[in-house]
Amino acid sequence: xxxxxxxGASPSIQTIFQEVNKEYQIIGFIDNNSEKWNxxxxxxxVYSPPQLxxxxxxxxxxxxxxxxxxxxNQILSLGIDEKCxxxxxxxxRVRARIDFLRKLSVELREALVLGDVAEVxxxxxxxxSHINECFPDKRLYLFDSFNGFDQRDIEVExxxxxxxxxxxxxxxxxxxxxMQKMKHPENIVIKEGYFPETTIGLENTFCFISMDxxxxxxxxxxxxxxxxxxxxxxxxxxxxxxxxxxxxxxQAVREFQSMIKDVVLFPVGDDCSIGLMKIDKFETSI
Length: 286
Hints:
The chain has helices at 14-23, 68-77, 88-110, 126-134, 151-160, 175-179, 216-227, 247-259; strands spanning 3-7, 25-30, 40-41, 44-47, 59-62, 85-86, 116-120, 140-144, 188-192, 206-211, 230-238, 263-267, 274-278.
């Protein structure tokens, strides 16, 4: 059986881990977060990126949906042959979400749904760059602490056992890193800080919002705030709704759905996300 390393040491990749484990011998994980180095995930050790060149393996399997492209480029920069890099476990998921975004942008434009666009939970900006490209004539608001998970939200995760997330996770990013990926940087509005406090004073309306927050509290509070700013016919895309590692996301969406009447939920085909479309609750069917 061929030996592999999985790049992306997060509990959220449990499904991918199980898929890979059926085909290969997993000898370890690689991750950019130094706090994970030398820890154990799913009974296997986590290594640093430089150690990749010292280990014996057949393939490196990328398991990060949000940073697939940037991770692949990082692996190549270490001198690893592209033939040894496998993206098949996340590529169809990533492409499904991007295809959904592209088609949705056309539908929103043709339906004349008004408003700006936004992403909450930007990380390194890979999906944000696609939003920027698909909506070239709209301002793109990017909400992120750029410092990883906040302890206030982690306490809620621990209290209700929603996830094993830890403070500071996903902090290996920066505004500069995100901005260099934008095709239309002149349209970008950075909202740095603790969310949803960064929405205070925001009077904009939106036609599309991507929410990739992983955690219960910012997701439920964000939905309460941003739904009031979403145009009828607009869509909020919620990442990790189907994730077994971040149970608070589905809990937050279900709770929010029970509070309102003007929403339709639909899966988007990436095995991970769900869409929420705002409908006119006063409309009656004929």
